[in-house]
Design a protein that fits this description.
The protein is mainly alpha-helical. The chain is built from five helices and no strands. This is Ferric oxidoreductase domain-containing protein.
């Protein structure tokens, strides 16, 4: 039962992190939203790390081991996003393109994991 709590925490963190990109596009026209966007961007780093931690805990509690599973692939995608962030100075502007592009695949893979967790 505890693994479900970590699952929902991970879902909230994933969609919070993903929502910043479209929100930035929508809210950049509004002056009052700038403080929110700056705060959200700073918080994004911490929520991303927290997502890695809660996702790993959820997976381990649900399965009792690390195994190839749709959730493991989802978590690996989130880890890849974090690696892009760590390599941002080496990748220069490409890191953000890779980060955003991969983010859409991670969200799509979330739905695969949510609806078909035992796909393979």
């Amino acid at each position: 039962m505890t693994y479900k709590v970590f699952a929902w925490i991970s879902v909230v963190l994933l969609f919070y992190n993903f929502s910043l990109f479209p929100l930035r596009r929508i809210l950049k026209r509004y002056k009052g939203a700038q403080k929110f966007l700056i705060f959200g961007s700073k918080l994004h780093r911490f929520t991303g790390i927290l997502l890695l931690i809660t996702g790993a805990i959820h997976g381990y509690l649900a399965l009792g081991t690390i195994t190839l599973h749709t959730g493991w692939l989802l978590w690996s995608g989130v880890l890849l996003l974090f690696i892009y962030y760590l390599l941002r100075k080496r990748l220069k502007r490409r890191w953000l393109i890779l980060h955003r592009f991969t983010d859409f695949f991670v969200v799509a893979w979330f739905f695969v994991h949510f609806f078909f967790p035992w796909l393979f």
